[in-house]
Design goal:
alpha+beta, four-stranded antiparallel beta sheet, eight-stranded mixed beta sheet, single chain, Ribosomal Protein S5, domain 2, 12 strands, metal-binding, transferase, 12 helices, magnesium, GHMP_kinase_C_dom, 428 residues
């Protein structure tokens, strides 16, 4: 199927040059972590409940160039923020440092992801003796976009520190390590979708993961007469339409509140079926139990449970459609997922809902939904490759009409990105 188009040789050389200047080492000594962003076509907001999810890496993401520091010192520089971050890998890291701006400024608090990676490795009893000198940069305009840039950054630091300390850690182990960063260090109650997509994806495939059993499979679309190019990047492309909203997910109480509502719904349903000792997750509620007792749930909890069970069913239907090369059917399920996120999960914001509706009207679009929780960031869409440019221009024009202030803050060249599938995180 060819190779991913990212990162380019030019991007790699820029990163190597910066790290070489920082460390006074040769560019040949510089290693680069390639950590892609991800999209989740189906499986919105059910990974934390042990549901089935689908995901795919894209050809955008985070690059972390680094060299081992030769001692325990960590020195980091960012393309986005001013000032270096400095700390030592032999210092104990604690979760309460997430709100302690130890580096001294709001901007330099971006170093918490690197500290979180050290925290995770320490919690897993790895002895770190080697720090890194590193430079991190992300694809332009896509930070805080709902593409799981936080997981991409956290995993980049994990892979770099593991490489510098000659640690051999499997992808499945690193999924849990990154959860320690997000859950244990940052206090975000998310599941394993983001980390899994970044670490387990394969170019051109759709990743299916059962978040209860942790089992996963990679599904390549079938070429059919009705969709002759559906198993190549030329058959479809991915649109990312930015909203201009940049609020950090960890600062929005809506996400954690909805996770708690899902667990409360599960608890009520499990108690009603005599399974009060089972962990209160909706994946532990059988569909027939849900149907028999859903009338017991008050309105908000009923909506959260309805989203979980309908979304889980859409994932399984979508996997069949994808495997058969039925992109139009796959797209309709994505659109239904987006609608359920708005109506039943009640996430999103007015600009994101408007973007979602504009994308569904755009030429050649098969389906669209929020990328992330919809509180900020972007929407994603699958689109016929032959109409991607036309669709992108339509979305840019229409969004400017309804949100002139937010759209006016965006770079017109990156406000709607046309993307392709990507590959899993790895080190060059």
């Amino acid at each position: 199927m060819g190779n991913p188009s990212w990162p380019s040789e030019e991007e790699i050389n820029v990163v190597k040059k910066v790290v070489s200047e920082m460390s006074k080492r040769s560019t040949e000594d510089v290693r680069i972590v390639v950590s892609p962003y991800r999209i989740c076509p189906l499986g919105a907001h059910i990974d934390h409940q042990g549901g089935n999810v689908s995901a795919m890496a894209i050809n955008k993401g985070v690059l972390l160039g680094f060299v081992p520091s030769g001692d325990s010192q960590v020195v980091l520089r960012s393309a986005e923020f001013k000032g270096d971050v400095n700390f030592r890998v032999d210092e104990n890291q604690y979760p309460d440092q997430t709100s302690n701006k130890k580096e001294g400024t709001e901007e330099n608090n971006w170093g918490r992801y690197a500290r979180g990676a050290v925290y995770a490795l320490q919690r897993k009893e790895h002895c770190l003796s080697q720090g890194i000198i590193g430079y991190v940069c992300g694809s332009e305009g896509l930070d805080s976009s709902g593409l799981s840039s936080s997981a991409a950054v956290g995993l980049a630091y994990l892979l770099a520190l593991e490489s510098a300390n000659n640690l051999t850690i499997s992808p499945t182990e690193n999924i849990e390590y990154d959860r320690l960063i997000e859950n244990g260090y940052l206090g975000l109650r998310n599941g394993i979708l983001d980390q899994s997509a970044i670490l387990l994806s394969s170019y051109g495939c759709l990743l299916h993961m059962n978040c209860k059993t942790k089992e996963f499979e990679l599904i390549r679309p079938l070429k059919t007469e009705s969709s002759p190019k559906s198993d190549t990047p030329e058959g479809y492309q991915i649109l990312l339409a930015l909203s201009g909203l940049r609020q950090a997910l960890t600062n929005n109480p809506g996400y954690n509140h909805r996770v708690a509502e899902c667990q409360e719904a599960a608890k009520i349903l499990l108690n009603a079926s005599g399974n009060c000792d089972v962990e209160p997750l909706l994946c532990n509620v059988e569909p027939e139990v849900y149907e028999a007792h859903k009338s017991m749930l008050e309105t908000n909890l009923a909506k959260r449970a309805e989203h979980y069970f309908s979304e889980n069913a859409r994932v399984l239907q979508g996997l069949e459609a994808w495997a058969s090369g039925r992109l139009e059917e796959f797209g309709k399920l994505i659109a239904a997922s987006g609608r359920s996120s708005i109506v039943n999960y009640e996430c999103g914001s007015e600009p994101l809902v408007q973007l979602y509706e504009i994308l569904l009207r755009a030429p050649g679009v098969y389906g669209a939904r929020f990328s992330g929780a919809g509180f900020r960031g972007c929407c994603l869409a699958f689109v016929d490759a032959d109409r991607a440019a036309e669709a992108a221009e339509f979305v840019r024009t229409e969004y400017l009409k309804v949100q002139p202030e937010l759209a006016g803050q965006l770079n017109p060249e990156t406000a709607v990105c046309i993307c392709e599938p990507g590959d899993c995180a790895h080190i060059i």
